[in-house]
## 1
Amino acid sequence: MLHPVVLSGGSGTRLWPLSRQNQPKQFLSLIGDRSLYQETVLRASGLPGAQAPVTVCSDDHRFMVGEQLQTVAVPSGGIVLEPMARNTAPAIALAALHVLAGDDDATMLVMPADHLVEDEAAFREAVARATDLAAKDWLVAFGITPDYAETGYGYILRAEELAPGGFRIERFVEKPDLPTAERYLAEGTYAWNSGMFLFRAQRYLDELGRHAPAILAAARAAYATATADLDFIRVGAEAFAASPSDSIDYAVMENTDRAAVVPVSCGWSDIGSWSSLWAVAEHDADGNRHEGDVISVDTRGSLVRASERRLIATIGVEDLVIIDTADATLVARKDRVQDVKTVVDRLKAAGRSEHLFHRKVYRPWGSYDSIGVGPHFQVKRIFVKPGAALSLQKHQHRAEHWVVVSGVAEVTCDDRVFEVRENESTYIPQGSVHRLRNRGSTPVELIEVQSGSYLGEDDIVRLEDVYGRS
Amino acid sequence: MLHPVVLSGGSGTRLWPLSRQNQPKQFLSLIGDRSLYQETVLRASGLPGAQAPVTVCSDDHRFMVGEQLQTVAVPSGGIVLEPMARNTAPAIALAALHVLAGDDDATMLVMPADHLVEDEAAFREAVARATDLAAKDWLVAFGITPDYAETGYGYILRAEELAPGGFRIERFVEKPDLPTAERYLAEGTYAWNSGMFLFRAQRYLDELGRHAPAILAAARAAYATATADLDFIRVGAEAFAASPSDSIDYAVMENTDRAAVVPVSCGWSDIGSWSSLWAVAEHDADGNRHEGDVISVDTRGSLVRASERRLIATIGVEDLVIIDTADATLVARKDRVQDVKTVVDRLKAAGRSEHLFHRKVYRPWGSYDSIGVGPHFQVKRIFVKPGAALSLQKHQHRAEHWVVVSGVAEVTCDDRVFEVRENESTYIPQGSVHRLRNRGSTPVELIEVQSGSYLGEDDIVRLEDVYGRS
């Protein structure tokens, strides 16, 4: 059976300031309302005979994965948590072990979570070709037929045809310089290495054991002690840490003699930068892509994205990328967006947090947004999902005032449990044990005013937590 | 005696989004910590023998004028409120009547509130020359010696010298085209019309009566019914409305045969656009002027201004103006900033408010900032100055929760009066009569959560107000 495996390990910063470490590219709605991750799981689960997709992601993103799956009503085939980043070869090994546990003849379709595929029919047809090859024990890479001389991707050179539309791989080549990329394009036998693969799970493990036994051993040891926690599969962290960090390309595909490629032209993009997002998005007559509240005068070839409650006005500019968020705005020349990395490096070096978190932070129970700060106070706007509850907790250094502005909150404060309704408030004294819960069917929204000498997120003692965080 | 008269009637939008109708250019800290208005009154009051400056401003800006005077400890010679805008000739007439009421030989130095003068010594020296001419009943315009061929100003052509450094005016000329401006510059007998004037108040009224009697009549009638309200002088609105709207240049200076010009080179700028602010500000080695939290990579010749709690990052851009505020950000090519007007026109046409108000709104008692809004609620951060009080008021459609985060608030709620201290809260039910007062010597800061079906600023009934607004 076909088991889609979605690799969501990336924490890329190339789309900063929208992409942050705790909410990377794959979870953002970059084109349309759904995130790239949601588009990927929908694409996967729409394939004929596909089982519920397995996701491999970092522990930090587990609740976001769960919520995004739920929102698009895609059943989960399991969310495997990588204890730490070890690149794709070990991640795929964990997924292979996981699918084999339920299906000893499992075939895996490996898909990065952050790619765009515009032509789903062409993709489905390529999957069918790849499935035939996988049945003959080939490890199949999807190769994107290049339509221009891109220097930012690795390429795959094909050899003889094994079956209609499927070829043995002659070799993988690194990112070329421009003349080389132009030659590859002209020769017609090269394809971009998309990072998508299809193979029998057991065959992958066999080849991994042959060419990278330390990775296989570490993955097996880590998976042997796996525990299920809600929808999440936690593997042994110490065992996994012992794995070499390597990509499937280096560890397996470049070494096996069973590597095949299925070329496909399916409107694929990895949206690796703001300029490539601009390129794949629809434009107006002036070549602009505007999102949100934008007023533009004599503006051309630009991507402008305004954030909530904010207006962006542009005058006389050309080929710019303007990305506005609650706490940071990027203004870059479109052909210089690769230098977003420089900005992120400066943020890191300065010990700042704008590359880590958005002002609005998602939690398993909902979200909070820090809308005001002062010397001894902070104001947060808090959403609690229906049925959700924050942990039973206390703070050493702050008191909290809660004003409910929507829904009905159930509040625990030391030994009292009571309801607080819209336009009602309550007070949580410093040091008191408290919990906020939404037992209703509509979201609870409240304004929290924190008051105290220290207001960091780390002033929290969790006594109980329905999400296993205590 | 010399009475400085500061004209603060402008509500220009050329520096949008920083400049808004309720907080125009003259009240902004564009260079350094003080506003242009504050720099102007300090410059005026530092002149030898100068009396306390008179300000002419719109009713909307009266509290801002009062507060800005107080902050720089300049005594007020009166704040004359224009009931409506009627251009400079009537405004100066009101000021002339006002200074003559206390000094029947008053000399006036008329200064727009929004100009920059970098060389105060040169300015003082020019004032001395102008004072000598005014004593001989000349109406003196200050002419700025041009240092480049500017096409955005009117020019003054001088005739024969009347006294050292003082000339009869041959004629005023309109904004020239570039070849004409270049010729003016080469000829050396033209100066920019700065909008600054010096003359005996009675002489101005005499000439006004001769050349624009309807303006004089309206100003006299309006001033005849003037009343003092705190520090403010309110003139008759109906009478003033009858005045033709005209500038001192058209109404008087171009018609009188007693017009003189004192040329001066004093580092003058009217900061009429973002590009002229960039030009007068200090730059770094790359020609950039950064204010606030800015990270720039390969950026040149740009003015970048970040607002509070927000980061602006730029990459690879050149000659841009980037002005960030709490609710709107402008990104414009530096040589296209005159089109800010187009953006403001679009805001007006759309019935929006981003050209009228900042998110943070100043009031006589302090300020409020709308930090969060939702379907049936709004969160405001409120500052109340020491000794200040909001009006005794009630709201038909909303209740308010107040959480004090700094200082001690005295709260009136129906027939109770009580104190609310830091980390305490209170509730103002819908329809109840309430007041917030700061009797302490430190500011009160509080978070207000409004809850109700309608949250507009106009849902207020003022029962008593110490600022005369009820």
## 2
Amino acid sequence: MTQDLASPVSLTAVDAPDQPTPTPELEQLYRGFEQELLIPLWTEIGDLMPVHPRSRAVPHVWRWQNLLQLADQAGHLVPVGRGGERRAIALANPALGGKPYATPTLWAAIQYLMPGENAPEHRHTQHAFRFVVEGEGVWTVVGRDPVPMRRGDFLPQAGWNWHAHHNAADRPMAWIDGLDIPFQYNAESQFFEFGREAISDEERTTPERSRSQRLWGHPGLRPVSAPGATVGTPLLNYRWADTDAALTDQLELEAEGHPGTVEPGHAAVRYTNPTTGGDVLPTIRAELHRVRRGTETAPRREAGSSVYQVFDGSGTVTVGDSSWSVSRGDLFVVPSWQPLSVRSEAGSSDSDSGALDLFRFSDTPIFEALHLDRAAVDR
Amino acid sequence: MTQDLASPVSLTAVDAPDQPTPTPELEQLYRGFEQELLIPLWTEIGDLMPVHPRSRAVPHVWRWQNLLQLADQAGHLVPVGRGGERRAIALANPALGGKPYATPTLWAAIQYLMPGENAPEHRHTQHAFRFVVEGEGVWTVVGRDPVPMRRGDFLPQAGWNWHAHHNAADRPMAWIDGLDIPFQYNAESQFFEFGREAISDEERTTPERSRSQRLWGHPGLRPVSAPGATVGTPLLNYRWADTDAALTDQLELEAEGHPGTVEPGHAAVRYTNPTTGGDVLPTIRAELHRVRRGTETAPRREAGSSVYQVFDGSGTVTVGDSSWSVSRGDLFVVPSWQPLSVRSEAGSSDSDSGALDLFRFSDTPIFEALHLDRAAVDR
Amino acid sequence: MTQDLASPVSLTAVDAPDQPTPTPELEQLYRGFEQELLIPLWTEIGDLMPVHPRSRAVPHVWRWQNLLQLADQAGHLVPVGRGGERRAIALANPALGGKPYATPTLWAAIQYLMPGENAPEHRHTQHAFRFVVEGEGVWTVVGRDPVPMRRGDFLPQAGWNWHAHHNAADRPMAWIDGLDIPFQYNAESQFFEFGREAISDEERTTPERSRSQRLWGHPGLRPVSAPGATVGTPLLNYRWADTDAALTDQLELEAEGHPGTVEPGHAAVRYTNPTTGGDVLPTIRAELHRVRRGTETAPRREAGSSVYQVFDGSGTVTVGDSSWSVSRGDLFVVPSWQPLSVRSEAGSSDSDSGALDLFRFSDTPIFEALHLDRAAVDR
Amino acid sequence: MTQDLASPVSLTAVDAPDQPTPTPELEQLYRGFEQELLIPLWTEIGDLMPVHPRSRAVPHVWRWQNLLQLADQAGHLVPVGRGGERRAIALANPALGGKPYATPTLWAAIQYLMPGENAPEHRHTQHAFRFVVEGEGVWTVVGRDPVPMRRGDFLPQAGWNWHAHHNAADRPMAWIDGLDIPFQYNAESQFFEFGREAISDEERTTPERSRSQRLWGHPGLRPVSAPGATVGTPLLNYRWADTDAALTDQLELEAEGHPGTVEPGHAAVRYTNPTTGGDVLPTIRAELHRVRRGTETAPRREAGSSVYQVFDGSGTVTVGDSSWSVSRGDLFVVPSWQPLSVRSEAGSSDSDSGALDLFRFSDTPIFEALHLDRAAVDR
């Protein structure tokens, strides 16, 4: 639900409730609790039940050039194979205790594959996607369907699907992986299974379009042979050309005086499962936002956390008390209930080509499925 | 549900149950029933509760050339305007008592608009669509959004949306309208409201794409500004280029040995609501079927009725005991639980270009919503 | 949806649109239509697309004493057995062309079983229920579970369940049957199958509670062994004691100043499927209404039709332009969009015991499933 | 989904993948990762992506007598009031780092209220319930509706409902609280708001039944005045008499040869939301299990965690490698994917009165909403 502006969230904090006066008897009681593995609510409530989410995570930015350089070094030093499974290097939020978590629910990594390399097949209950900020040449083989990866492409992949990667090009390729690893780690829902060491020659082909795209990539149409709803999307790649066209259309509609954008100068599309119209994955939402040159978005907070990657353009991002200049490939996190505002760089011309394009993924589907979603715009 | 082949429908008919021996007392009883407006079950059960649907409708074909010729005559004799509302001429199934019903639930008509003509704005709870077998030049204005109509385009329009038509071309244009008029007539759910006599100049523009298409016509993407599910599809036109590409892809996948078609040589796509993945309208399903040259489909029966229009190619259609040669524009009906089989004409070459393309609409969503759907394939 | 009072339904009727001036050419055109089995919209639109539902059915009342007397005569003259299946005598709305339809979608009948008689087992896709206004002694065997029937009990039974009846008492018993026969007849969705001629001795037992009630008749509780949702309710009988208590509670809450009733003095409960919280049957809604002594309900119209039976008390019912005094057992129909108001008889005391209790069933679930539901209250 | 026995979960572990040979270059790479706040997958995958859930929590039992004694001491030493809010003392799983978490998602506590005491009103997004193993005299006021609490009663309360407690009796009362505090803490979805310091005199009444029970506590019936589905159940108390009757019925049905129990000798009911038929709370499932005297249940594992409290009887519980004798009031936890088996004590007679009754709550609704549910029975 979107927060009603007329009834703002109470800011009276539970914070530090008055505690009973320490006495020997109280001390003895607390020792009794400890012995019996008990903890009273009245000493913990401020942390456990805050008036609004106070994320353990902090806003942070990772620079793409640094990631790319370290990934390339790893490409020369660390082989890819069974056991380690993937040459993926994860963002570790500085406030999450040295865990490889971008946020309390989301995992984000740069993955890197050298020319000719293969990442072996496996499957897991964790939901995953890939997004390509630059380069091409890798095909991800999902359920034996080779899916091409190129700049701007988004590749969701629901849990428990077999998948492998192979680099068919003569140069390395990097992309980002997003998964719900921390969420499933906390919920303790994870299963994992090894697949084949090597994919077949047929799967090593490099088609221009995946079979999934040929079946499911036509707007408003579905094959009559597959009538049901699926948990994750059957469309395995969302091509940049489509995403770009949709964003361009929204800004043009706005220019003509029609609705469509999120707010003035701010277009956004959500990747959806064509069998339901809902999110591509049960636990992860993914979107592409375009902020027109010289535009600043209204600060918006949401229960739940997000990770963003700059796809194109440059600008300034403000998350809570932090503010950074960002450009292509930079990644940053927005912790739960922290306000985010984005300002795209004002260019010399007012053409849209200078827009700031941001890829975003978040844990919102979890919140919506459990009726815990809330959002507020600070105007 | 698809009929389990291991438990075929019982063919023991209730048909003509034995009746009690006529006596004066029985006669008197029956007169008593009549006086009190009562009818016993035991005399009616064979008709009311058959072992499987025995449609009151019969299979029938209407020839496009005849329809077109009569519609053109009407174009010169009958004006379009407030009151009559539309120059639409409906198929009347010969077994439905002179009612303008193609089947017990579906209404199908040819609509015809002369150059420069306008059909006035109105709205109604009946769900509707338009499909264009040939021609162009008319724009349907739905909720003030002008939607172009061209050969192969499908335009669904959920109930209670304002809509008008205007012919911007210098020649007449024909298309077919499909509605759930008989269903809503039987259910007694209909509401109707007049709109403006004339649409505005701005709505009289002739854009290449509707605004709905610009917002909703990108595969797997939706505007973040419109996150909910809608009863009818927000996408107001499904262009032929997309439909054709989807069908071509299915047959090519089949040729490569992959799944996707309904049965060998038979590709089919369903038009869907991108906010739900389900049917475009609550009461009407619409599909485009392509039967490869020289292919015959398996006889299939379904609870509920359909209307088909040949979009391209030619072939032979068998519905129950009827069989017809059909070609472009011809319309035919398939009554409930009557088997349908289609054979496309074998051409001189085996290229797909000679395929038989069939537009289909049916009342299946009603059956599915109420858990009354059944289908069986006679192999 | 409930009609917004600020935007009342337009009362401008399409009714009788102006017709084109008759000319020889027009006559010839109309003959052409006839030959080709075509019917123009402009001559039919007033009937097909009214501004609001104008039911073909009319309000009508059937007197219980007359029904009972005729049913008893039939009990002596017409045997029950295979073929005729049931000694059921249906209400035929006087405006529905001699069809055994209470309304365009609903069938309602009195069923009558003599001492020791058995109605043979069968099943059908039509959804059905039984309601008992007086008497006891019959058990309905649904899927081999004997279900007792007593005054005030409601017994829903979803389509395609095997069922039979047997009268274990030494006197005849009558009750009403409600089915969606006209709806399924129009939609052509019906399947029917004969079962066993005779039920087993074990099924001929006369338990106080059905097995379904023992599993599903505990408030807010369900067996862990049956976790899913079912199309029809698994609870096969709703006992009067529970219904009566729920209605009494609502009126007492109202008397204490709390919400709960539909309107002042008007309590109502809906029978629900405990696996979904929704209606007991996919096509039929059933409710029990209690109107406190001396209370008059606000006129309410609804898209869709209803049948009512007076369960207890007496009063005056007004449906559209008709008005009748009614008492125990009387049945009446409310056609689509006709306003209904009920006034219970003012008694000599103000105790609730003189309330007017009305059993109601309607086709509303069809309308809701297809988003065609509308209602309005005339205040 | 229930695990298919023919395809057991792979037991090949990722566990400790081979690591690249340490070299100075590798060391430098790892230092680079650290500086940039990056962590490679190949060193962490064994912990992050196990072949099946390996819970951080451990099985553990808490003895009711010890809890009760400490709670009573707290009753004399620690006041209840604004800030601390509740005299609740939480189970701290010994393997969860000193956090007051029974499992990674569930919070469980004993709450204690002295005669005449009041716990102030507040509300929070955390979903909560109360279950009473013994005693009576407290009313929980939810949205101004006083709800009685007595032995065997279950009181669910969906997030964001105002609530307070008051002890109207002349003796202390204890019960258990269950909440999804750890889950919402990890997801960072929590909101909290203080309400009134004191409830009104009217709310301080001690009715036999809550208003919610009077409206919603009738089997299979709902008020027509409240037709929609609600996120949490509108029924605020589930009385022991109903739960007991439902369990008794299941075991009697089993004894008569009919289905209904979970497995031989093991009856179980789930508390449900009458507006949906689903779980009472979006994140918490609650059930009451009855294991007949001398019966042992099959070991069952489930993705997700549970907390149990013995309501009556005694027996032996085995969770993974742990095994305990338990009796009334004892609480124990079952971590994710650990097998649980229960053996009730064989009594001197075979009457059901010696059954082992277990209250259970779990996080399963979270898993089902996100399609992450799995279960397996080890036979």
